[in-house]
Amino acid sequence: MDSTTTTQRLRIDWRGRPIDIEYAWVNDAAASAGAPAPVMVFLHEGLGSIAMWRDFPARLCEAVGLHGLVYSRPGYGRSTMRAPDEHWAPDYLHRQAHEVLPAVLGELGITTPPWLFGHSDGGSIALLHAARLPTAGVVVAAPHIVVETLSIDGIRDTVAAYERGPLRQRLARFHDDPDSPFRGWSDCWLSPAFRDWSIEDEIRAIRCPLLAMQGVDDEYGTLEQIRGIARAVPQTRLFEIPACGHSPHKDQPAEVIGAVCDWLAEVGPGALR
């Protein structure tokens, strides 16, 4: 996140315990320009946090004239960490979509259906939220709707890099306890119980506009992830990005912002300036 962005904390009650959530607003100019601006909520990847988005949320929101909300999920960033003995179940993404995200929106007084931008795990969360709860529209970048062998192999390689040390040191800059997100995420994805995880049927219920993008060189998933979304959700627009890996907003930010601007200009009357 941009160094000038001020992060704040809010408290939600989640599954019977208080959880502190680190969050930040971006593009306040949109919120103060008369009528309340629609809000775009940014949902980070499996190892992400507010800080790891860098300046992308602000750049995108300024380009499209939306007020932006960025937050670190429980277990990430400066939010309440995962307890060492807490193991995430295969439905952990569903819990984030159906419990945590609505609680954050409610605590912040956001009553208008939000626009969602989700990356990787955050993309899956965005899809699950839109399939069940009111949503203005969804942008997903490198989302997962099924578990692929490529994904598992990529995560195993990431675990090896983490255990060698340098990756853990890098993640420690962005999380109060890097083991909290890393072990929560990797242990779940590599568990036998997760191998059959799929949200292909659930996302058929999505009725809002949807833009699904993925790099053609994504090391964690094939293009069948977003092509599967398009088969399940007919109003999906696909954007397959050349020379791009698993993080389109980092590898090709200008192309991503341009694609979102073009898409919103068609599907989001009133969302743009």
From TrEMBL:
What Gene3D superfamilies does the record point to? alpha/beta hydrolase
Q: Name one GO molecular function term.
A: hydrolase activity
Reading the lineage from the top rank, the first entry is: Bacteria
Note the InterPro entries from the entry. AB_hydrolase_1, AB_hydrolase_fold, AB_hydrolase_sf
GO CC terms for this protein? Answer: membrane
- UniProt-recorded name of the protein: Alpha/beta hydrolase
| Domain AB hydrolase-1: residue ranges | 41-257
Keywords of the record, alphabetical order, are: Hydrolase
- What phylogenetic lineage does the species belong to? Bacteria, Pseudomonadati, Pseudomonadota, Betaproteobacteria, Burkholderiales
Span of the secretion signal?
Answer: none
Record's keyword annotation contains rRNA-binding: no
